[in-house]
Each structure stands twice: as structure tokens, then as C-alpha cells.
UniProtKB/TrEMBL annotation:
The gene is rhaI. GO terms for biological process: L-lyxose metabolic process; rhamnose catabolic process. Keywords: Isomerase, Manganese, Metal-binding. It comes from Paenibacillus aurantius. Its EC number is 5.3.1.14. This is L-rhamnose isomerase. Residues 82-266 form the Xylose isomerase-like TIM barrel domain. InterPro entries: L-rhamnose_isomerase, Rhamnose_iso-rel, Xyl_isomerase-like_sf, Xyl_isomerase-like_TIM-brl.
Amino acid sequence: MSDRAYQVFEEQQKARGIDLEKVKEKLKALKVETPSWGYGDSGTRFKVFKQQGVPRNPFEKFEDAAQVHKLTGICPSVAIHIPWDKTDDYDKLKEHAANLGVSIGAVNPNLFQEDEYIFGSVTNSDPAIRQKAEEHLLECVDIAKTVGSDVLSLWFADGTNYPGQADIRKRKHWMQESLTRMYRAMTPEMRMLIEYKFFEPAFYHTDLADWGMAFNLANKLGPQAEVLVDTGHHAQGTNVEHIVAYLLDEEKLGGFHFNSRKYADDDLIVGSVNPYELFLIFYQILDAEATGSEGVRNNAANIAYMIDQSHAIEPKIPAMLRSVLNVHTQYAKALLINLDEVKEAQDRQDVLGAEDAVRRAFEFDVAPLLRAVREEIGVPVDPMKTYLESGYGQSILSRGKGGASW
Ligand code: PSV
Ligand code: MN
Ligand code: MN
């Protein structure tokens, strides 16, 4: 690497005791899954703006997602949402993905868009609706088997809007019963990731409102069930990295849905307003990898990193690229934390020293490092610039308006 900026960076990091070869290996090994729905039209509850060139079907969504992988080298899989990505030939979709150099990742059941689910899906007091919801969950296990995916990612919109509207405890039991049957249908390789969210669309109570409820349910189901942390699903001020550290220590952290938020579940470009939070999440993961028990280290090594964002006003492919690049940047910065230095300061109970050892890593410019990594893995050193100059965005305009939307 002839880049002068990289040479300076290398000297600087060596002097701090950072093994840059190891850092580069970790940066090359990071895998971030992108969501099929992030390529389609989406919006707020007030309006979905239709954009020109949006994919018209799951096959085209994979074509767009493959661009993101081609340019970054770290997004080899794409999550699907059923029925948004329903097709009568999943083998064909799997083959199409493989031809594009990507694969089908997490399978997300969707139990929140049909009229029958107005009062809940697996928690509905009507047994026929619960049955229908459960059949959909089982259908998704079958789809995962067909496409060769080993992650089932569950989020339930189930909840109520008013006190007294429904029996909260009965709903808790119904949720557990359905998920138990789904769990039993999974192959031993599969993992069930249980996502929580404190409100929306329900405004009074949500059946799986926080990490504790998801964690409790995952524990009851068994070792193949874990918790999924969507960074936008907490009340203001929640310490998300604390939840991450806690779940890791319990060996129950299944994965992430990364996105950025300022107010509620905003689903915006990852790291756009809260890059330090993302950095601190990675700090907890790297610390668990370095100092956790064998089980904790295994958990840290098997986290499913996924993006869950929806683009209402911005062009979708570059927005996804920006998110992936932001994740890579914050991961790179977290890799520069000298964990020994942090530990020494902790042992001295040196509050400012410990905080400084963490924060200092965040303040380095990692652009030269990421350029070096990209050169070594054979992707463009500036993926965004290459995308914007590639003409791909123009080439898809012929798809017209009115593509897939959620
Ligand atoms: C719900 O807000 C959620 O975060 C779930 O992960 C859904 O699958 C996704 O958003 C839909 O956009
Ligand atoms: Mn999510
Ligand atoms: Mn969400």
C-alpha cells in the first residue's frame, strides 16, 4: 500500500500497540446482511413516495442488493420478508441470487399486513386467526429449508391500544405456544431470532415490548432461540450497548437490525445521527470476544449483522451503501480501541483514563485503513463514487415507477 496517509496511520497505530494485520482481517471478515425491503418503495404512515427504477419483484431486489455487495465486498446475503418477497419458485430465487454472487439470508415472516391481524396474530383471542398466523410461521420455516437459510427473524406487531382491550397474560401464553411449535419445526442448524419493539403500531402495550421479554421467551424456547436487537426499537435514552453486553454475557445475542433514529423507529441510514452508539456497540462485542468465556466468545462470533432501514425520500441503493460504509467505519474505529489500556485504567479506577482510552479510538480517521482493506479484497476504494459513476442507477430507471413497496 503506497498511500502516504496509510503509512502515517500504520506508524501511529503501531506505536499504540495495535496489530493492524489483525484489524484488517477482522474488517475483511465482517458480513452485513441487507434487507430486500430496503430496495423497494417505503415511507411513513402519511405517504409512500413512488420512485422511478424501484425493483418490481424479489428478483430485481436481489439485483440491486448484489450491487451493494459487489461494491463493498461485505454484504453477501439478503434478508427476505414473506409475503413481500413471495414467489412460486424459491429454488429459482435462490439460483438467481447465487448467479449474482449473493445468497438468501434471514427469512422474516410478516404477520402485520393482513386485515385479519387487526387484533393480533399469534396473540389473537380468535383461535382460527392464531392458527392462520402459526401456519405462516411454519411456511417460513419451510421456505428457509428450501432456500438454505438458517435464520428465522421474527417481529410481531401484536399489541393493544387501550387498557383492558385484551388479556395481556393470555396473549403471552399464546405467543409462547405458537413459537414453541415453530421452534420444533426448525432444523438443528436453524436459529430463531426474536425481535422486540416498545411501541408502534400498538400504542398501549406491545406483546414483545423489550429485550427482557424477548430474552425470557428465547430462554423458554431453547438454545436455538436468541434475541435480535433493532437499534431503533428502544425508548429515548436507552443504553443499547448495555443491552448488547448483557445479552452477550447470557450467550443470547442473536443479531442486529442496524438503523438510525432520532425520535422513534425512524429506520434511517445507519450511523447518520448516532455513530458513537454504533461504535460503542462494537466496543462491547469486541470486548466480549477478547475477554469473555468460551460461550460468550462463540456468541460474539455468531452475531447476525443485518440492516433494517426503509428509504422514504432518498435513492435506495446509495442509501444502503452509505449504511454499509458507516457500519464498516465504526467497526474499524472500535477495532482501534486498546482493550488492555482500558482494562488498566479500569483497574486503577481511573474514570477519565478509561473513557479516554475508548473515545480516542473513535477520533482516528480510518479512511486510509478502509481504503487499504478495500484494495486488498478487490473492491473499489471509494464504493459510493464508483456506484454513482457506474450508470447502474440510470440503467434501472427503465423499470418505471410503481415498483415493489411495503
Ligand atoms: C418493525 O419495526 C421492523 O423493525 C421489523 O424488523 C420488520 O420486519 C421491519 O421493521 C419491517 O420494515
Ligand atoms: Mn427490525
Ligand atoms: Mn423497526
